[in-house]
Specification:
Strand order of the largest sheet: 1-2
Number of strands: 2
Distance between the termini: 17 Å
Structural class: mainly alpha
Radius of gyration: 11 Å
Strand content: 5-15%
Shape: globular
Helix content: 40-55%
């Protein structure tokens, strides 16, 4: 089955409620609380950076991981 591409906009929906700056662990925890699926969780866990100042940095990191 082909891997579906998840857009940064979709990911941001699952990060609603995150206080920035945030660590990767903060993002993963919030995404799980917001019922993100496994693909989004693994994408967040796979990001190279560990600290994010704002949602734009998260979106950029997601784009780099593809």
């Amino acid at each position: 089955m082909p891997k579906t591409k998840v857009s940064p906009i979709q990911v941001q929906k699952f990060l609603k409620g995150v206080s920035y700056p945030a660590s990767k662990n903060d993002l993963v925890k919030q995404a799980k609380q917001n019922k993100a699926d496994k693909e989004i969780i693994s994408m967040l866990e796979g990001m190279k950076e560990d600290k994010f100042k704002n949602p734009a940095e998260v979106s950029k990191a997601i784009g780099e991981g593809e």
